[in-house]
Design brief:
0% strand, transmembrane, membrane
Length: 115
């Protein structure tokens, strides 16, 4: 639920910033659909943790696999976002690399916070 709310809030705030106005009804419905779609990102990590709960996998393996899936998803979504932007390929690659670096840094900080 927190992920859903975070995605919706980020979308809403970016709309306010870009358009300097609140959303219309159709725009708001689109934001809600996109936010609900973000739940799909956590399905595989939840399956992996379920496998760990059933002792098919160990918890560290499930967490590593989850991190891989989440970083992979971040790259795919980032690629879909930059593929149509008129930037040279090397700049698009820098954006994707930056996403991976920032995503990895967030994971590292979360890991440190829980140790």
């Amino acid at each position: 639920m927190g992920t859903l709310l975070a995605v919706f809030l980020a979308d809403f705030l970016s709309h306010l910033t870009v358009h300097a106005r609140v959303t219309t009804g159709p725009e708001l419905r689109h934001m809600v659909r996109v936010s609900i779609g973000s739940i799909g990102v956590i399905l595989l990590p939840m399956v992996f943790l379920g496998l760990a709960a059933l002792q098919v996998w160990t918890v560290p393996v499930a967490l590593r696999a989850s991190v891989g899936v989440l970083l992979g998803t971040l790259v795919v979504v980032g690629y879909l976002a930059v593929r149509r932007i008129s930037l040279p390929a090397w700049q698009k690659l820098c954006v994707l690399l930056g996403e991976v670096v920032i995503g990895s840094a967030v994971i590292a900080l979360e890991t440190l916070a829980h140790h």
